[in-house]
Amino acid sequence: MTTFMSLVGMCVLLGIAFAASTNRKAISLRTVGIA
Question: How far apart are alpha carbons 20 and 14 in whole angstroms?
Fold first, then answer.
């Protein structure tokens, strides 16, 4: 359960960062997915 909550937290943080980004096309989804 702890691992699941950690993954959810990471997805939420990435979602917030993506939503707040002013240049979304510059974000490489492949790089983000690997991280």
Answer: 10
